[in-house]
Design a protein that fits this description.
Elements (H helix, E strand, L loop, with lengths): L4 E7 L3 H15 L3 E3 L8 E6 L4 H20 L4 E5 H14 L5 E3 L7 H9 L4 E3 L7 H4 L11 E5 L1 E2 L10 H4 L4 E2 L2 H13 L4 E5 L12 H10 L6 E5 L8 H9 L6 E3 L7 H6 L6 H14 L4 E8 L6 H14 L3 E6 L16 H24 L5 E9 L5 E6 L4 E5 L8 E10 L2 E6 L1
Parallel strand pairs: 1-2, 1-3, 3-4, 4-5, 5-6, 7-10, 10-11, 12-13, 13-14, 17-19
Antiparallel strand pairs: 8-9, 15-16, 15-18, 16-17, 18-19
Helix pairs in contact: 8-9, 9-11, 12-13
Bound molecules: 5'-deoxyadenosine and iron/sulfur cluster.
């Protein structure tokens, strides 16, 4: 028997890339590759990259720099760049790093086996098309191997919103939804393999239209699958949060009480300049409706500080909005100029201002996160156990609200979903006992 070749994939960026990396590994499995967790013994290295902020993109080049030595030692080693940097800078990558053999954009990774064969024959292989065919359908069926209790499932890709700061509409292309029957088949397959929680993914997941009743319709059909216990979805745009989805948060038991609903900023002037098509008040009203449907809903958000022309008063409006919402968790970023996006052409906020605003915003968000976490003490929550903790007999899982929860108890296994009483709160996790 021939030795399997080894594939090392390093994944950057969002959860959609995590899902894509899994699918790429599966596609390469058909070519005789098994995954390895170190680049040192790999026959092929694939970087699945992110282009959302400058720092994310720069990481790719410094990582590639590190592989120079490996490539010098082992000329047979093939190096590939996938994902959004590949899409945005394909040919430039090959120019800047001639040791790169293969570049594949996020819409073309079903062609990876052919590209790998081309690279093996000594040619450079580049594919950053937006092909007509559907990559998900071109991929082989997922292997039947057992897997962990949680999984991502991409249902929608791309975005038509064109927020003025964002590269996604350019790197991932126009909004496309996968048909509901395909998603349901993949979900049933995941459940057969041990998955109990599925997170539906899409850059604009609540714009999903692969089901005649939208994302809410898909969620309700998923909820009917025996053995699937929990459903989540991310990331959502406020304007696509329709009545059916709000209602699902109220009465669909398997839909978890956690929602990532980015607002980006709290000033109407800045929201307009960001091309968000909603006001701060509209967002707050939406939050109110969601909480009316599901009072214990934990909200999470994304924020950008130092967007071009943001004044101190604009920034204060962001702080006010955060105060009004009370987030369970949040991600905040300094605005990063992305070539080709409208905001990159505008007068920029000085870096020192951005740093200062980011610090103030994060201090507030951390306080809120801690407060909501501390409020869990004494409460009972569902926890889906995912892996062993550091201490003997300890297991760690995620609460319904996505907190990491540690429990010490004999007989707990991976994949168990149990009621847990929270007894302690630390900066990034909770501790509980079985209820
Ligand atoms: N600069 C800073 N943050 C950005 N994001 C998207 N584009 C940029 C940018 N140019 C943030 C947004 C988005 C999250 C995924 O990344 O907050 O919701
Ligand atoms: Fe980017 Fe999200 Fe705006 Fe689409 S909705 S342009 S993915 S920030």
């Amino acid at each position: 028997m021939t030795q399997p070749k080894k594939l090392f994939i390093k994944t950057y960026g969002c959860q959609m890339n995590v899902y894509d990396s899994e699918r790429m590994a599966e596609a390469m499995g058909g070519q005789g590759y098994v995954q390895t967790d170190s680049p040192d013994d790999a026959d092929m290295i694939l970087l699945n990259t992110c282009h959302i902020r400058e720092k994310a993109a720069e990481k790719v080049y410094s990582e590639l720099g590190r592989y120079k030595v490996l490539k010098a030692e082992r000329p047979d080693l093939k190096i590939g760049v996938a994902g959004c940097v590949a899409q945005a800078e394909g040919e430039e990558i090959m120019r800047r790093q001639p040791m790169v053999d293969l570049v594949v954009g996020p819409q073309s990774y079903h062609r990876l086996p052919e590209l790998e064969a081309k690279a093996r024959s000594g040619e450079k292989a580049l594919d950053t098309d937006f092909p007509e065919e559907d990559k998900f359908e071109r991929l082989q069926a997922r292997p039947k191997a057992k897997r962990g209790p949680t999984a991502f499932l991409t249902v929608q890709e791309g975005c038509d919103k064109f927020c003025a700061f964002c590269v996604v509409p350019y790197t991932r292309g126009a909004e496309v939804s996968r048909p509901a029957d395909r998603v349901l088949t993949e979900a049933r397959d995941l459940v057969e393999r041990g998955v109990r929680e599925i997170t539906l993914l899409g850059q604009n997941v609540n714009a999903y239209h692969g089901h005649d009743r939208g994302l809410a319709g898909l969620i309700r059909e998923l909820a009917a699958i025996d053995g699937l216990e929990r459903i989540r979805f991310t990331t959502s745009h406020p304007n696509d949060m329709d009545d059916a989805l709000i209602a699902a948060h109220g009465d669909c038991e398997k839909l978890m009480p956690y929602l990532h609903l980015p607002v980006q900023a709290g000033s109407d002037r800045i929201l307009k300049r960001m091309n968000r098509h909603h006001t701060a008040e509209a967002y707050l009203k939406l939050v109110e409706r969601l909480r009316a449907a599901r009072p214990d809903l934990h909200l999470s958000g994304d924020f950008i500080v130092g967007f071009p022309e943001e004044t101190e008063a604009d920034f204060q409006a962001t702080l006010d909005l955060v105060e009004a919402v009370q987030y369970g968790s949040a991600f905040s970023f300094k605005y990063s100029e992305r070539p080709g996006t409208p905001a990159a052409e505008r007068p920029q906020v000085p870096e020192a201002e951005k740093d200062d605003r980011l610090q103030r915003l994060q201090a507030l968000l951390v306080r809120q996160q801690r407060a909501l976490q501390d409020a869990m003490i004494g409460r009972e929550v569902g926890v889906l156990f995912e892996k062993a903790g550091r201490r003997p007999g300890q297991m760690v899982g995620k609460s319904d609200y996505l907190h990491a929860v540690y429990v010490e108890s004999d007989g707990l296994a991976r994949g168990d979903l149990r009621r847990v009483r929270i007894v302690e709160s630390s900066p990034n996790s909770l501790r509980g006992v079985l209820a």
